[in-house]
Automatic annotation (TrEMBL):
It holds the Pfam family PPR_2. PANTHER family: MITOCHONDRIAL GROUP I INTRON SPLICING FACTOR CCM1, PENTACOTRIPEPTIDE-REPEAT REGION OF PRORP DOMAIN-CONTAINING PROTEIN. The gene is LOC104239259. It comes from Nicotiana sylvestris (Wood tobacco). InterPro entries: PPR_P_subfamily (IPR050872), PPR_rpt (IPR002885), TPR-like_helical_dom_sf (IPR011990). SUPFAM superfamilies: HCP-like. Residues 60-79 are annotated as: Disordered. This is Pentatricopeptide repeat-containing protein At5g24830 isoform X1.
Length: 579
């Protein structure tokens, strides 16, 4: 608006000067109006222009009247000079006004270009942030689609956005797409970084593709990328996990000399090597890495001690594991739940459940909250030692702390009570399991069926089998073997055969235990033709036959004094048994 006001003021000044001319005044006035009319009409605000034009017309009329009065009295000899002066002033003012208009248009164009560039930058940043957010949320399909859309519009996301996308694809196992994106980065940019290759190498290692990971590692140098200590850690961990400890050691010593990061990274690599050696059974080599860290002054942390404790527990040296736990405490490292779980698991495997319960008391007094794994190991250990009531107490501890056990924990206690013949407590645990919204599974019902069968209640066991079907669970071979075995023990051959037929109709294939139980009842009932026919089916089934079916038939034929058949069975046994 301000340039328009300036132009209007200049036009009024110009017209006052031109009124000094006599005969050329009207011509000049018309030209001025045409020139400035074109100039003002190019602007958007016509209301302002019309107002300014009215003011100009009124001013020109007043000046024209005055000039006519003056010209009637003036001298004709100054006409040419006045006309030349007027045209010079007009040219100067027009040139000045046009220059100002040009500058104004350039400023507007520059502002519009700046706004456009700003919008492009905002859209670019927005799309990049959206891709990263979707990768973090696991929405890789949408992220990849948006990335492709940006590429099609010649908008190349930055390296960080590419790394988010590659990392997400590698975690999901879509390594071909990740590798395709890396090839695109090499072709169009941005150039891949060490973090890019680390994600790709980690993805191959997670998918057990260590060979491809090593190939990718070897191509990094071809693209001018120096592997970092993180790259080394990924590969060393993958090699150790696969049992290739010697190859891991070679890579470890090769990269040690390059001193990539040092410090904590050296600690991480050495800890990975220690863990690999312990799991490979090489305790001496693991301790050599431990001594090297201490000798070089590397500050070990809680994780390193946990690896050592876990290593000695795997080698059943719980006493040395205790020693390193005490050393942790002296150095100010409080053992965490992983440390205590390692000790609890080792003690339960050795049958020392009282010591495991003592460790549980220690960790609670130290302010370390037991987790699902702690309770699971203790309850399993107690049930194996037939301390079912004590295991039930730990179940109550879990529920009091609002820790809902997984079905396996409930099933272990139910099975423990069932093996002890305490059907009432087994059913009580099952009811409590349902009350806490944990649905019984096939193992739960098998444990209850076993408990009923052990008590001699076949009818209740069969009722549980029907209840399984109503709950949408399909009985497995264990279920049918329990029921068939119970029917055979009671001499109910017809019921056992019915269960066998039902088993086949349900698509559950009999195993060696099934055939052995049926063979036993046939032999006891003297039904040797049926026994021989069933034995033939067993040999033709392709199952790995053990010694039990052969011994059942051989014992029966020995009692029948048919030694030729016993010898034939022995010959078949030698052929069937693996060498």
């Amino acid at each position: 608006m301000q340039p328009l006001l300036l132009v209007s003021e200049e036009s009024q000044f110009l017209i006052r000067i031109l009124n000094g001319s006599f005969q050329t005044l009207n011509i000049i006035k018309d030209r001025v109006f045409h020139a400035f009319g074109d100039l003002f009409c190019s602007k958007a605000n016509l209301d302002v222009i019309d107002t300014r034009q009215d003011n100009v017309v009124q001013s020109v009329n007043r000046e024209e009247q005055g000039s006519n009065d003056w010209s009637s009295k003036g001298n004709n000899s100054n006409l040419e000079g006045d006309s030349r002066v007027g045209f010079n002033v007009l040219d100067a003012m027009l040139k000045h006004s046009l220059d100002r208009l040009k500058c104004m248009r350039e400023r507007v164009s520059s502002a519009e270009a700046g706004i456009s560039n700003c919008n492009l930058e905002i859209n670019f940043n927005r799309d990049s942030y959206v891709i990263r957010a979707m990768c973090l949320d696991g929405k890789l399909g949408a992220a990849l689609s948006l990335w492709c859309n940006m590429i099609q519009h010649s908008i190349i996301p930055d390296g960080i956005t590419h790394n988010y996308l590659i990392n997400g694809l590698c975690k999901k196992g879509e390594l071909e797409k990740a590798e395709w994106i890396v090839r695109g980065m090499l072709y169009r940019g941005p150039s891949p970084t060490c973090a890019t290759y680390n994600s790709l190498i980690r993805g191959y290692c997670l998918m057990n593709g260590v060979d491809k990971a090593l190939n990718t590692f070897s191509t990094m140098a071809n693209h001018g990328i120096i592997p970092s200590r993180v790259t080394c850690n990924i590969l060393v961990h993958a090699l150790c996990k696969k049992g290739l400890v010697e190859e891991a050691k070679k890579l470890f010593h090769k990269l040690l000399s390059k001193n990539h990061d040092g410090g904590s990274s050296d600690l991480i690599t050495s800890t990975i090597m220690m863990d690999g050696c312990f799991k490979n059974g090489d305790t001496d080599q693991a301790l050599a890495f431990w001594e090297r860290m201490l000798k070089e002054g590397i500050k070990v942390d809680k994780v390193s001690y946990n690896v050592v404790v876990h290593g000695f527990c795997m080698s059943h040296d719980v006493g040395t594991a205790y020693k390193y736990c005490c050393e942790m405490l002296k150095l100010g490292f409080l053992p965490d739940v992983y440390s205590y779980n390692t000790l609890v698991g080792a003690l339960c495997k050795k049958g020392k459940t009282s010591d495991a319960c003592y460790i549980y008391d220690v960790m609670t007094r130290m302010g370390v909250t037991p987790d699902q794994i702690t309770y699971k190991m203790i309850i399993q250990g107690l049930c194996i030692n037939r301390e079912i009531d004590r295991a039930g107490c730990f179940l109550e501890y879990m529920l009091q702390k609002s820790i809902i056990p997984e079905p396996l924990v409930w099933n272990v206690i139910i099975d423990g009570y069932g093996r002890c013949g305490d059907i009432e407590k087994a059913s009580y645990i099952r009811d409590k399991m349902v009350a806490f919204d944990v649905l019984p599974n096939i193992f739960t019902y098998n444990a209850l069926i076993y408990a009923q069968i052990k008590s001699g209640n076949l009818f209740a066991a069969q009722s549980l089998e029907k209840e399984m079907l109503l709950c949408g669970l399909t009985p497995d071979s264990v279920t049918y073997n329990l029921l068939i075995g119970a029917a055979c023990n009671l001499g109910l051959i017809h019921s056992a055969l019915q269960l066998h037929d039902q088993m086949l109709r349900k698509g559950c294939q009999p195993d060696v235990i099934t055939y052995s139980k049926l063979l036993k009842v046939f032999c006891l009932q003297g039904m040797m033709k049926e026994a021989d026919k069933l034995f033939g089916k067993l040999l033709a089934s392709g199952l790995a036959v053990d010694h039990v079916p052969f011994l059942i038939l051989m014992k029966r034929y020995c009692r029948m004094r048919e030694f030729d058949k016993v010898f034939d069975l022995y010959q078949k046994w030698l052929v069937a048994m693996p060498r």
